[in-house]
Predict the structure.
Amino acid sequence: MDRKLVEKFTYAVNTLILLIVFGLMAFFHVLKVPFLVYFSIPTILIYLIGYVLIITKHLDIYVWMVYMWLTLYMCVTTVCLGYDFGFHLYCMSMIPVMFVTEYLAYKLDQKSLKALGVCIAVCMAYLACTGYVSYHGPVYDVDKSAAGIFWCTNSIIVFSFLIFYTNWLIRMIINSEESLKKMAQTDKLTGLYNRHYMMEILEKKKKENTYLVIADIDHFKQINDTYGHSAGDHVLKTIAEIFKEKLPGADICRWGGEEFLILAPGNKETSAKEIESLRAAVEEFNFVYDSTAIDVTITAGIFVYEGSLSVDKWIKAADKNLYYGKEHGRNMVV
């Protein structure tokens, strides 16, 4: 979650609300409700202070302040003007905003209001002010000729906030879930699938004319011992990139340590040709780490799927071919 983006967005929302307050202040003047005109002055000051809090990165204080004042503003305008102008609707727009704010605070590791508790408090304030109007009527008996237009305007604003913030919250949750899903499926170092997820893929995709490869970096321990583990990590990441470039349609996994598992469509002839090309690409690649050249080769075992094989037996068959290559000189495809 980008904190600067959240701050810019909050800045924009604060500006929008401030402009609405100025517009309402003019409207209250036309309605001849001086109390609400004067009440707009501290409201304007609240949002001017909001700019300072956003700039100084006190978003938690800003949220507290805005929530409390919005609730008070909703109550005061409803008690003064009644239902006809729709100010009581603003409590509904606050609900998704509260939950979005709590989620953003969690993602940014910041303090936050507990959305559920705040929502209950806002609902109680709503019941209090609307209950008062229902029993006593509004404080001001104003000209209601513009009430319909104002009701529609407030309704549009409220529903826009409801739609926008609810959609934003759902999109953030989906993106977060996708990110977690990707983390659960991939190896952090290489970006390839991890072993656990690859087993799921193998179960789903095992079929005729599909081949499995287990490739091993030759003498990888020696690379780590000679050049350091950072150099070893560099080799692993680079080989992963070579594999992805050479086999764009394949499912590739870091099987463990310096071993990789590849699943791709093809028969004995095509698989041997493709993996031999892959082996040659690794051998010919100029591996350099910290200005030091490193000789890197791989050994690979291939086994084309046969209808009676379980996934475990398929893996063992490819692994058997890999070890044959390792025992007979390495840097080869079996």
Remarks:
- The chain has two domains: 3-183, 195-327.
- The chain has a mean pLDDT of 87.
- Strands lie at 210-217, 251-256, 259-265, 287-289, 292-294, 298-304.
